[in-house]
């Protein structure tokens, strides 16, 4: 009403302008904008939320170390797809980054204070303190990557990491590979150990724990580093000795390498090629994800396809279900399949 | 006060719990949480904002097509760095995605309604309707990638794209390359045309407009596609004929290829290698950005380094300056330099 008075424009027109309705003449818009500046009009988003008891926002929490958020090839695809779905339903997606304990605490405060109408938790780990926070509030939640599987306390979207990894391994066994090395994704990430378990199951008696090595994170550099570590260990060499890569592989009869994701595989592959190893002739290499990396490598990567965008769509739908008072499914399993390219 | 009454816990303790203060006994926390559930406690974030007239949030707007947001290798690095800086200053970064006209309109409403205390606009283009919206409100703003340069209406962080590209080109000229092809970033992106201008300036009389081709977006696939289009055009071939790549390059004396960014270069390089062209022996290739892609290619990419994370830090600082009542610099130029690897 103050803005209407100062600008000399009707309350209804001011309201239309402030709500972004395009039916405001340029002249009126100009006068309203000037009045807003002159009287230092106070933001009314808070007041509006209080009246409606809804914020019309859904928060998307990105969990992970800063390094993993900047190198994750999937996270923005999930986010953009969730955004589109929520946007069609009239909700604004707001993304919050949980990359430190302090960020987690700030987000916990936002959860308790009703910052958003619903919450999408991407890559939230089972031991994250936010799990407890969400148990104590009544907000719609959907999660992915928590590794809870069927026992998740919140509606969950996931793939069957174990079975998908086993299927990829059976494909390699079918190509007569028997001495298969494995670069596992980082510790504490449930899907990383699920993928390793699937590999181990499918390998059966051929599984050799000395050929398994753990990467520090999901990035390419870690793939290189993990492979180097494995080769040094197999050669009985110290960590400052460069191994003769083709010789070590031959001596250990290693004929294939499976990696916890495509980035690790891309890094390992670059290292192998730089040391004169031919792929797939000398060693077959396979990844997981079917992210853009899988087609950017040379040769392109044999991998497991997962429908990344669908994580976003399904988590958005689960939150929308709950906002509309419906029950969300407790878990949605997304389909995967092996994609054969030239690396294996 | 309702929660305090129902839970039998003091108002001060309830307030501490709801504000995320850890000094609440587990037993009290349990009782407060139960009361919050029982009485369906109404979110108080809106009320708190109204009392304080500050939301303690800064919005980060990601502009671009959905495809460019999912393939941009820099955007999350900028976001994570802005988040850290704002977080240290007690502000919560909230990310909004402006990937469609409707999203832009929704964000315009949020701007007018005081959704956030400040705004970071990443890759906002000069003709974006949000520019007009921000002119009409009194909120702290910082922008990057707008291509306004010194004449930006808002505090701006940028690099000198033209000079950086010229420097890279002079490096190639110094290596005796004279017939240099150029894959330009997408139309309407100011930095893409600035980089082309810098290339043209440095080439001088050696500049040959028939060796310039435009990519559809910044992704690897577009790099491949643009190169194919250029080769077909140079060979006078129709778009459904596969050119003899080494023959066309030789016939046209093309000895180097500069690309508007690293992803375009990675895509073009993959295509060249797949068609038997040796890099750098037959054709030198250079990119721009020094993104992770530049080290993932084989051979690694000669490129222009820009300090990506600093875009986030500087934009955050500009908004914080304004929030504290200080003046932000109208423009901060970030330094760049040529990084020589093995591709050129």
Task: Describe the protein's architecture and organization.
The structure is a homodimer of 344-residue chains. Helix content of chain A is 46%, strand content 15%. With 344 residues, chain A is of the alpha/beta class. Chain A folds into three domains: 2-42, Orthogonal Bundle (434 Repressor (Amino-terminal Domain)), CATH 1.10.260; 55-159 and 309-335, 3-Layer(aba) Sandwich (Rossmann fold), CATH 3.40.50; 161-305, Rossmann fold, CATH 3.40.50. In chain A, the strands form three sheets. In chain A, strands 2-1-3-4-5-11 form a six-stranded parallel beta sheet, with helices on both faces. In chain A, helix 7 packs parallel to helix 8. The first copy, chain A, is elongated and about 85 Å long. In chain A, 51% of the residues are buried. The interface between A and B is large, with 69 and 68 residues. Chains A, B: Keywords: DNA-binding, Transcription, Transcription regulation. Chains A, B: This is Periplasmic-binding protein/LacI transcriptional regulator. Chains A, B: One of its GO terms (molecular function) is transcription cis-regulatory region binding.
**What share of the residues of chain A does DSSP label as strand, in percent?**
15-25%
Domains of chain A, number:
3
Read across the widest sheet of chain A, the strand sequence of neighbours is 2-1-3-4-5-11
Number of strands of chain A: 12
Average pLDDT of chain A works out at: 89
Order of helices and strands of chain A: HHHHEHHEHEHEEHEHEHHEHEHEHEE
> Could you name the ranges of chain A where pLDDT drops below 50 across 5 or more consecutive residues?
none
Describe the main β-sheet of chain A briefly: 6 strands, parallel
Please identify the top-level CATH class of the largest domain in chain A. Alpha Beta
Return the structural class of chain A.
alpha/beta
Name of the CATH homologous superfamily of the largest domain in chain A: Response regulator
Measured on Cα atoms, how large is the radius of gyration of chain A?
26 Å
GO molecular function, one term (chains A, B): DNA-binding transcription factor activity
Organism (chains A, B): Bifidobacterium goeldii
Protein name (chains A, B): Periplasmic-binding protein/LacI transcriptional regulator
Keywords (chains A, B): DNA-binding, Transcription, Transcription regulation
């Amino acid at each position: 009403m103050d803005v209407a008075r100062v600008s000399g424009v009707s309350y209804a027109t001011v309201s239309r302008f402030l709500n972004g309705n395009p039916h405001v003449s340029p002249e009126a818009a100009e006068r309203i904008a000037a009045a807003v500046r002159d009287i230092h009009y106070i933001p009314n988003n808070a007041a509006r939320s209080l009246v409606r008891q809804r914020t019309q926002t859904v928060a998307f929490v990105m969990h992970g170390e800063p390094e993993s958020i900047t190198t994750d090839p999937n996270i923005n695809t999930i986010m953009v797809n969730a955004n589109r779905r929520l946007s069609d339903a009239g909700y604004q997606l707001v993304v919050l980054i949980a990359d430190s304990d302090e960020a987690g605490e700030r987000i916990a405060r936002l959860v308790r204070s009703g910052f958003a109408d619903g919450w999408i938790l991407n890559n939230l780990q089972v031991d994250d303190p936010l799990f407890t926070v969400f148990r104590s509030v009544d907000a719609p939640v959907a999660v992915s990557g928590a590794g809870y599987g069927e026992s998740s306390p919140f509606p969950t979207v996931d793939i069957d990491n174990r079975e998908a990894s086993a299927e990829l391994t059976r494909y390699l066994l079918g190509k007569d590979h028997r001495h298969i090395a494995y670069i596992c994704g980082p510790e504490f990430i449930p899907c990383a150990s699920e993928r390793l378990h699937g590999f181990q199951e499918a390998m059966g008696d051929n599984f050799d724990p000395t050929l398994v090595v753990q990467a520090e994170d999901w990035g390419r550099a870690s793939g290189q580093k993990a492979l180097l570590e494995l080769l040094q260990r197999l050669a009985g060499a110290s960590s400052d000795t460069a191994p003769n890569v083709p010789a070590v592989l031959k001596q250990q009869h290693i004929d294939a390498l499976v990696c916890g994701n495509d980035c690790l595989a891309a890094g390992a592959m670059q290292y192998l090629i730089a040391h004169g190893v031919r792929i797939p002739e000398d060693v077959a290499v396979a990844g997981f994800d079917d992210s853009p990396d899988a087609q950017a490598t040379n040769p392109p990567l044999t991998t497991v396809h997962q429908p990344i965008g669908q994580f976003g769509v399904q988590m958005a739908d689960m939150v929308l279900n709950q906002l509309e008072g419906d029950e969300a499914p407790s878990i949605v399993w997304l389909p995967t399949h092996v994609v054969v390219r030239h690396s294996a």
